[in-house]
Amino acid sequence: MPEDVAGSEQMLANWNQSIQERAARYQEMATRVQGMTISERSQDGSIEILVGSNGILQNLVINESASTKRMAEVSGEIMKLLQRAQSRIPELLQSAMAETIGTQDETANVLFNEAKKNFPAPPAEEPTRTPYDRNEINFRVEDDAPPPPPSRPTPPPPPRRRPPRDDDDDFGGESVLT
Questions:
Q1: pLDDT value of position 89
Q2: Can you tell me the distance from the alpha carbon of 38 to that of 119, in angstroms, rounded to the nearest whole number?
Q3: What pLDDT does 35 receive?
Q4: So what's the pLDDT on residue 173?
Q5: Judging by beta carbons within 10 Å of its beta carbon (0-12, 13-18, 19+), is residue 91 exposed, middle or buried?
Q6: To pair with 44 at 20 to 30 A between CA atoms, which of 54, 99, 107, 109?
Q7: What is the pTM for the complete model shown?
C-alpha cells in the first residue's frame, strides 16, 4: 500500500510540474504576442501605420506628399492599411505559438481560429482603372470643379391688401353677391 501512495504522490508531482511548465510557456507566448507590432505603408509612401497585436492603431504618419490627395482618398487608404495590418495578426500569433506552446495544442488552435475570425483577410483590391482601360470616354465634370451657386428661391407674392374701409357696411366696398 505505501507503494500506491508513493506512486500517487509522484503522479501528482508530475502533473503539477507539467501544469506549471505549460503555464510558463503560455506566459512566454503572451509576452511575445503583447510586444508584437505590425507596420504597413501605402504604395506611394505617403501614409504609414503601426498596429499592435491587439489590432489597435498605435501610430499614424501622414507625410506631406499626401496633401495632394483628396481627404476621402487619404482616409480610405488609412482604412485599407489598417485592415491589411490587422489581417496579419493571426499569422504572428501562430508564429509565437509555434515557438512557445506548439501548434498541436487545442487551446492554441482555439486562439488562432478566434484571431482569424476577428481579423479576416482584407478584400481583394481592385486595380485602379481609368476610363481608357475600359475604352470609355468620360465627359463628366470632375469633382474638383466648384459647385454651382445655390439657386435662389422665388420670393412668395406679397400679401393682398384690402382697400381701406370708408363706410360702415361690412362689405368693404364690394358687392354682397360676390
A1: 93
A2: 13
A3: 87
A4: 62
A5: middle
A6: 54
A7: 0.60
C-alpha cell at position 145? 470643379
Amino acid 151 reads S
d(CA 14, CA 45): 55
Q: Which residues contact 115 (CB under 8 A, 6 or more apart)?
A: 89, 90, 93
Strand partners, 17: none
**In degrees, to the nearest 5, what angle opens at C-alpha 11 toward C-alphas 9 and 13?**
70
Nearest in space to 92 (alpha carbons), one of 25, 30, 42: 30
C-alpha to C-alpha distance for 136 and 24, rounded to whole angstroms = 63
Alpha helices in the chain (DSSP H): 2-34, 71-86, 89-100, 106-118
- Identify the DSSP state of 49: E
pLDDT value of residue 3: 65
